[in-house]
Structures
1.
Amino acid sequence: QVQLVESGGGLVQAGGSLRLSCAVSGGTFSTYAIGWFRQAPGKEREFVAAISWNGGSTFSADSVKGRFTISRANAENTVYLQMNSLKPEDTAVYYCAGKQTYRSSSSYLTVARWYDYWGQGTQVTVSS
């Protein structure tokens, strides 16, 4: 059974930073593409960033480009989302998702319904 567990969320002031972690267990981590998505109250879940199985391809939403960086450490079975210059509009529950695949196209990795496994989410709150 593949499990994804997010951590690292919290309350931060605008302009601050957080690093989210997505720890994956129960599968061969190095064969999984991982995506980050977020959902704010009253809004639909939206794509934030994604990374291919080998880290060779990364994608991020326009709203976070230049501020958020996704990376993976296969030896730790973990994907990170470094979030800098946070804004109040970044406030949301952040979810990581995984799919065992060698595909690396944004047509797949940026789409929530394409992923098979999801974590429970971690709350990020940015105060103004």
2.
Amino acid sequence: QVQLVESGGGLVQAGGSLRLSCAASGGTFSNYIMGWFRQAPGKEREFVATVTWTLGSTYYAESVKGRFTISRDNAKNTVYLQMNSLKPEDTAVYYCAGDKTPSRWPALRVDDYDYWGQGTQVTVSS
């Protein structure tokens, strides 16, 4: 069964950087679309970035474009989210997600994705 395990969250000052990792196992991911979402307290889960596993095509939310970079390492079955120039409003639980039967690109909606990790907390202090 497919498992997604995030790591790399933590506390960082505004302007700092973090790199999140999402280790995928239990499936064949070559046709997957992988995404990162985040959810702040009292808010809905929102799209951050997405990448196609095979070609590495990417798409970003406007709020993170130019600051965050999504990438994948096919050999390690791992997806990354490099986050630079972090702001207090980036504070949230970050979730990795996998879409096993992509029907649209970019896949921006929560219900586009079939599998979810447990989340990792990112806190940016001002």
3.
Amino acid sequence: QVQLVESGGGLVQAGGSLRLSCVASARTFSSIVMGWFRQAPGKERECVAVISRSGDRTYYVDSVKGRFTISRDNAKNTVYLQMNTLKVEDTAVYYCAADLFPRPYMWYSTRQDEYDYWGQGTQITVSS
């Protein structure tokens, strides 16, 4: 059982920055691929970023490339999402997720059904 707790959400003006944190209760956090997803009202949940177990590889959805940075601190059991130059369209509930059993042919997945544990979500609202 892995518990994930996100923090850092809030209201920010367009062009501003926020950093999300997600603390995991897992004893073997360094063996877990971690992802950030978001879901805007009326839209499907989408994968925003994924980071490998060691942190040496990352994936970003095209819409956030160059603006968002995912990172992790395995000593603190924490994954971060630094969000810069925020846009109104970034408004959503953001979730961190843990993928305990990544596929052998691909180090990451963007499919939410392949993630095993989820945080409760944190709201990000970007105003114009």
4.
Amino acid sequence: QVQLVESGGGLVQAGGSLRLSCAASGGTFSRYVMGWFRQAPGKEREFVSAISRSGSNQAYADSVKGRFTISRDNARNTVFLQMNALKPEDTAVYYCAADWKLNTMVVTSTPAEYDYWGQGTQVTVSS
């Protein structure tokens, strides 16, 4: 059983930056694809970014490409999401998730494929 705890959310003005962290415990972190998703009020949960087990491959939603960067530190069992040039439409609860995979290179963008989820951290971007 993997436990995921997000941190780093908060209130920021448009154009600002935040760095989200997700600390994992209870499993072998390097065996999991790690992803970030978000859910705004009244909307479905949507894919934001994912990183392969090795960290060599990343995927991003079109809406965040060029502004967000995902990374992971397998020695510290932590995945990060650096968010720059934030916009009011980025306001949402951000969740990290873990997807067990044999392949070290694949990334996953489908929520249903993820096995474990964190409790979420609120990001609010004011205009």
